[in-house]
Amino acid sequence: MVDFTLWDIVRNLLLAARWTVALSLIAFIGGGLVGLLLLVARTARWPLAEPLVAGYVQLFQGTPLLMQLFLAYFGLALFGVDTSAWTAAAVALTLYTSAFLAEIWRGCVAAVPRGQWEAAQSLALSFGEQLRYVVLPQATRIAIAPTVGFLVQVVKGTALASVIGFVELTKAGTLITNATFQPFLVYGCVALMYFALCFPVSLYARHLERKLHAPG
User: Is the model's pTM score more than 0.70?
Assistant: First the structure.
C-alpha cells in the first residue's frame, strides 16, 4: 500500500480532471459540428438524407455508449487507424454527442412556426438563406438551454472511457484506489470533482432557460 495524503490524492485527481475536461470539449465541439451537418441534411430533405440521418440518430441513441467505445477501440484497427484510447474515446464520444445534438436541434427547428418558412420563401430567399437569416436565429434561442444542459451528460459520459484505458478522472480514481486501498475517500473525491464540473453547467442551463423563456 502506498502512503498517500489527502493532498496527494486531490492533486493527482485534478491532473486527471484536465483530460476529462479536454475530452468533453472535443466531444462537444466535434459532435456539434457533425450534428449541425446532420441537421442541415435532414432539414434540406436531400435524397435519402431523412432515413439515413434518422437511422444514424437511432443507432447511437439506441446502443450503450460503453459498447460504442469498445467498437471504436477495437474496430478502428480494422481500417489501419491508430487505436489509442484517446483516439477511440474522442471518436466514440463525438459520434454519440452528434446524434443527440442533431435530434435536440431538429426539435428546435421544428418548433419554429411554419409561417416563418413561408414568409422567408415569399421573400425569394434560398434554402440556405432561410436557415441563416430566419429559422436558425429563432431555433438557436430555443436550443441554447438544452444544448448547454446536454454538456453535463457529455462530461459524465467521459467516465466510461476508463474501460478502454483512457486515464481521466474515473480511471485515475481507480488507479489511486488500487495503490491506497482507500476507495471511499478516493471515489468520494472523484464524485465531488464531477459535481464541481457539472453543477455550474446545470445551473447555467437552468438560468438560460428561465431567461430565454421569460415573458417579453
Answer: yes
